[in-house]
Design brief:
Keywords: Membrane, Transmembrane, Transmembrane helix. This is DUF6131 family protein. The chain crosses the membrane at residues 6-38. The chain is mostly helical and 51 residues long. 71% of the residues lie in helices and 0% in strands. It has 2 helices and no strands. The chain is rod-shaped, with a radius of gyration of 13 Å. 4% of the residues are buried.
Length: 51
């Protein structure tokens, strides 16, 4: 999810499409939060780790 967010963010910047930039930022934040919760050992959606 984090990598998809970065790709959409870059596409939004290069193509000047604001919605892609916004979706990219949202996916980066969600991906970082899930990665952080998974690395702390907390189960995310029933899984011990998320990647």
């Amino acid at each position: 999810m984090f990598i998809l967010g970065v790709i959409l963010l870059l596409l939004g910047f290069f193509l000047h499409v604001m919605i892609l930039t916004i979706i990219g930022v949202i996916l980066i934040v969600i991906g970082a939060a899930l990665f952080l919760l998974g690395s702390l050992g907390r189960p995310v959606a029933g899984r011990r780790h998320y990647w």
